Amino acid sequence: MDLRFSDDDERFRAEVRAWLEARLDGDFRDLRGLGGPGREHEAIEPRMAWERELGAAGWIGLGWPAPSGRGASLWRQVIFHEEYAQARAPGRFGHIGEYLLGPTIAALGTPEQKGLFLPPIARGEQMWCQGYSEPGAGSDLAGVTTRADLASGAWEIHGQKIWTSHAHLADWCFVLARTDPTERRHAGLSYLLVPMRQRGVTARPIKNLTGTAEFCEVFFDGARTAAENIVGAPGEGWKVAMATLAFERGASTLGQQIGFAGELAAIIAAVRERSADRDPEICRRVADAWIGLRVMRSYALRVLAHGEQGELPLAGLGAKLYWSTWHRRLGELAMDVLGPEAEIIAGAPYGLTPLQETFLFSRADTIYAGSSEIQKNIIARRALGLPRSS
Amino acid sequence: MRFAFSEEQEEIRRQVRRAIADGGGVLAARRAMLEDAATDLELWRRLTRDLGLAGLAIPEAHGGAGLGWVEIVAVIEELGASLACVPFLSSACLATAAILEAGTPAQHDALLPPMARGEATATLAWLEAGGDASPAAIETAARVAQGDHVILSGTKRHVVDGHTADLLLVTARTPDGAVALYAVPAAAAGVERRRLPTMDATRAQAEIVLSDVHVPASSRLGGGGWPPIGRALAKARIALAAEQVGGAQACLDLGVGYAKVREQFGRPIGSFQAIQHTLADMFVLVETARSSAYHAAWDGEHEPDLEITAAATAAYCAAAFYRCAADTIQVHGGIGFTWEHDAHLYFKRARAGRTLLGSMTDHRDTVARSLGLGPLGTQESR
User: Fold this and answer.
1) If you count DSSP H runs as helices and E runs as strands, how many of each does chain B have, helices first?
2) Domain ranges in chain A?
3) Is the per-residue pLDDT at B361 higher than 70?
4) Is A387 exposed, middle or buried (0-12, 13-18, 19+ CB in 10 A)?
5) Model confidence over A214-223: pLDDT tens digits?
6) Are residues B281 and B358 in the same domain?
7) Of the residues B95, B121, B147, the one at which a domain ends
8) Which residues are registered as beta bridge partners of B251?
9) Which residues of chain B have a CB within 8 Å of the CB of A286?
10) Structural domain of residue B99, as residue ranges?
11) A253-383 adopts what CATH topology?
12) Closest CA to B332 of B269, B281, B277
């Protein structure tokens, strides 16, 4: 056991920190703390410029293999995310391209695709969205019905996607579509790369319960993309989509936890301000939240340390279930600390305080990216080897 | 950055596992808990004489292995998985840490070698009637007597393995109101001890009555008051947390194993989502608790906030074990409610652990105080 970063990694940390501080004290000083889950509507244009700034400095694609990326170790990626969160740098628009599509193309794409897509993503100029979920295919992703047919050198796409983050801002979408209607379920699906800015694509933001809109529904009504804009062979879409998810090795989790720690600190400040610590129950719930966050960090370090050596350990399958449940409880604690003031919003028409945003947006945490129920099914099957439920 | 045990540490773990398996595992614990000593003497002999584990955390200069809490955690996790009835927590963790933290070098020389050799065991007698874990609750008195002696009188309760330990480390209050720790041979005149019958029969507790026990003034360990005792308790809490991880894993294994073979409605019950989700929740508790205990073992030796680290992992692991033990009874259904099945042994061990080295409420209050919230309870500062 040695839970310290190496001296080299600490030097890298200093480099990241210095760069972020210089930019966020300079031209981008108004962007600190903007964007992120529940606040994606904030400062869209300046944050797009920030993406290009990150790209120009070579921070995008840090973990991609060379030559497209810098081939940084998992720990260096972790450090970048930690420093990014610590500096309260703005929420990313480019993360879907960088962390989901980029590694997929780097691993499974053709040389042409690598040349075409990786450089603009790395420059922070090309934004992506993910076309997986559909109205009839949420947890049951294999139920997608969006169709794509190859006709005169292009795929023609018909169908509807939903819960697509940033679709209204994205240049491209990776779409899971059914290309062989004679096959069922996981077979007959393909992984297509589709330009968003064309007739035949309509992205419509969905106002969610926080009153803001960061997810969209996307209608493909005869949208087209070139025949070669497919990752893997036709019919291999499920395999590619699962590979995309497997590239997620949790480099961002410690950064995410720094954000959580900021929320917890705000709650503790509210406790003091309101003298809510006269109530031992509140004190103990705050203690539980603090303990839970510390446990989250221990768990993440252990999983990352194993993941660094290759395969993601089965022990890590509970990570998403754990943090999402913890975060939801944190939001509830925040409201109970505030008492009757919890009800009073920041302003009309529906401006929420940060703690209210935490409370309301955390209801999504246990639903998106695999609901808690799906997470438990996966643990039961893969980690515990329990028989499939029919 | 390395969050894993070394090959040497894994080898210690394997040796412990083998020793436990050779002795019969939980069956050996069932036999031991029926005896007066409540100790699996054969396993203790192997762990101490053959493997030298009683002195795991004792420096080499005093006959120990000179290792640390990461090794302690690896060993005790295995002991917890099989409910081993040995005085490892009380003697090799709690009392060893107390002597190391509170004692002078000369006292280390005098007290630790026989413990390292497995020839003597020790335990910490700190709680009294009412079970209040704060130092303010210590009423046992240390009076000054003639001839450079001290007279101890008072009653200690909930002394882990206190009916068998050769050496009792007794907290007492001196005439000036300070807390002091005395090394008292269990055989000293005026020491009366009896085993308290416990719901968890796998770990014995004793009541120790000290009636004007004369000990030399030099048997006071150091002069540091409560802080070294607090640190020793913190280290023992980390060990207990790791023991609870072992227990929680065993409960998960029992539940998963049973769910795969027990059939109802013509299918294994493990194919039902209600059962799967219960077991998945247990899995998350086990893995998070394990991460926390391992991290605390390392932090305990490298980070300054030992007592907060210990309180946090103690509260979390105690709750995780309890929930896993309770849920494994539920998954087992009727058979899990029988005396014959092991589930209740884990459940009772888990219950006992919630209050063994301070209560879960105490631990959460310690954390809350460290966050500047309170006032809650008494400051552990003397």
Assistant:
1) 11, 9
2) 7-93, 128-236, 253-383
3) yes
4) middle
5) 899 999 999 9
6) yes
7) B121
8) none
9) 368, 371, 373
10) 7-121
11) Butyryl-CoA Dehydrogenase, subunit A; domain 3 (1.20.140)
12) B269
Pair B326, B230 in one domain: yes
Please tell me the class of the A7-93 domain: mainly alpha
Q: For residue A365, what pLDDT band results from cuts at 50, 70 and 90?
A: very high
Task: Give tens-digit pLDDT for B56-111.
Answer: 999 999 999 999 999 999 999 999 999 999 999 999 999 999 999 999 999 999 99
Q: Give the DSSP H or E segment for A204.
A: strand A201-206
Is residue B380 domain-resident?
no
Whether B376 has a pLDDT exceeding 70, the answer reads: no
What is the topology classification, in CATH, of domain A128-236?
Butyryl-CoA Dehydrogenase, subunit A; domain 2 (2.40.110)
The answer to whether B327 contacts chain A (CB < 8 Å) is no
Cα A178 to its chain centre, rounded Å, is: 25
Q: How far is A219 from chain B (nearest CA, A)?
A: 35
Q: Which residues of B touch A9 (CB under 8 A)?
A: 1
Q: What is the 3-state secondary structure (H, E, C) of A351-363?
A: ECCHHHHHHHHHH
CB contact under 8 A, A384 and B364: no
Kindly report, residue by residue over B282-323, the tens digit of the pLDDT.
999 999 999 999 999 999 888 889 999 999 999 999 999 999
State the amino acid at position A62 in one-letter form. Answer: L
If we measure between CA atoms, which residue out of A117, A130, A135, A122 comes closest to residue A53? A122
Domain boundary among B186, B204, B219: B219
Cβ neighbours of B299 in A, within 8 Å: 3
Residue B248 forms part of a structural domain: yes
Q: Chain B 171-210, CB below 8 Å of chain A: which residues?
A: none
Nearest to B1 among A75, A290, A383 (CB): A75
Nearest-CA distance B311 → chain A (Å): 9
